[in-house]
Amino acid sequence: MKKSDVIKTLLNHRYVYTENTSGSAFAPANIALCKYWGKRDIELNLPVTSSLSVSLGEKGAHTTVSLINASEDKIRINEEDITLDTQIAKRLIEFLDLFRSNTEMHFAIDTKINIPMSAGLASSACSFAALIQALDQLFSWQLDRINLSILARLGSGSACRSLWDGFVKWHAGKEEDGMDSFAELLPYEWPHLCVGLLVISDQPKPISSREAMQKTVNTSCYYKSWPEKVKTDLEVLQEAIASRDFDLFGSVAESNALAMHASMLTANPPILYWLPETVAMMHQIWKKRAEGLPIYFTQDAGPNLKLLFLKTDIEQVKKTFPEIKIIMPFEKH
Ligand code: PMV
């Protein structure tokens, strides 16, 4: 099954003609609390397991996509023109290829992202989620969010969770065409929940998450136990969210992230995103927790940590980590 088959099923050639010249949308970044790590279908970004995330409110991507009279696409990110042979441009162009009705059709993408890019802070997720909603507007598809989530997944797996604010679950699904592999909003809010970004490095990562996860699936002896771990973690996380049991919530999220990194470490060759500062920060978090401050962390495919804590502890957290950037995912903006 190819991406273009999914497009045919969902859009049925509705992208051939539009009277609009542009479409714009915002999508939040999301942080996985139970990670997506490993694909059962590489072409369609179908995951081995389900996953669960929280969106980062107004941190994310604003994207405008326009049809242009030009011989090639134009990509602008944060006021900078991006050369078309860069990794990010190639991925965006490949995604846009799915929606061209002819080879003459070219797009301009103008994106403003207000989180550090390529540093494991989920910038590709919000980029593809914003882009698919902007395309939906440009072509007047009027697709519902579930279908947009399926299309966003074709750009980047975790993008399918960036269609909503709040807690979002991506159902792994079983179908070969991935029509049952989409994300969905969970009906819970947690107004006092805070996510703190501890940016240790904003340099591009040495190995992309897509490459790292495939290497892990193919070579790590620990990967076999990952689906079982996720199954339990997902259940417990949802219980913790429903009952607002913060210690349970934080400890499952932290343990899930560490298990993902353990699976990478046992890949061949090993993959380690941690920097010495990452480890030092972990020790500091564990020390503070032992002293009674309820803080936990999660970590994606990069050296940076995301702290999880409650509003009541903001001052203490700021004192301990003065450089922290705090986001309240459920604060209305
Ligand atoms: O969607 P991708 O290919 O950027 O992969 C995301 C992988 C993690 O961020 C490490 C985990 C996740 O669930 O977001």
- Strand residue percentage: 15-25%
**Structural category:** alpha+beta
If you compute it from the alpha carbons, what radius of gyration comes out, rounded to the nearest whole angstrom? 20 Å
Mean pLDDT: 94
Spatial shape: globular
Helices and strands, in order, run as HEEEEEEHEHHEEEHHHHEEHE
Helical content band: 25-40%
What does this structure look like?
This protein is an alpha+beta fold and 333 residues long. 35% of the residues lie in helices and 23% in strands. The protein has helices at residues 3-11, 87-97, 123-138, 145-155, 209-219, 226-242, 246-265, 276-290, 314-320, and strands spanning 22-34, 39-41, 46-47, 51-68, 74-77, 80-81, 106-113, 167-170, 183-185, 193-198, 296-298, 305-310, 325-327. Strands 1, 4, 5, 6, 7, 8 and 9 form a 7-stranded mixed beta sheet that branches. A hairpin with a 2-residue loop joins strand 5 and strand 6. It is globular, with a radius of gyration of 20 Å. The N and C termini lie far apart (40 Å). The relative contact order is 0.17. The mean pLDDT is 94. Bound molecules: (3R)-3-hydroxy-3-methyl-5-(phosphonooxy)pentanoic acid. (3R)-3-hydroxy-3-methyl-5-(phosphonooxy)pentanoic acid binds at residues 32, 35-36, 51, 124-125, 156-158, 209-210, 300-301.
Topology:
Elements: H1 3-11, E1 22-34, E2 39-41, E3 46-47, E4 51-68, E5 74-77, E6 80-81, H2 87-97, E7 106-113, H3 123-138, H4 145-155, E8 167-170, E9 183-185, E10 193-198, H5 209-219, H6 226-242, H7 246-265, H8 276-290, E11 296-298, E12 305-310, H9 314-320, E13 325-327
Parallel strand pairs: 5-7
Antiparallel strand pairs: 1-4, 2-3, 4-7, 4-8, 5-6, 8-9, 10-12, 10-13, 11-12
Helix pairs in contact: 3-4, 6-7
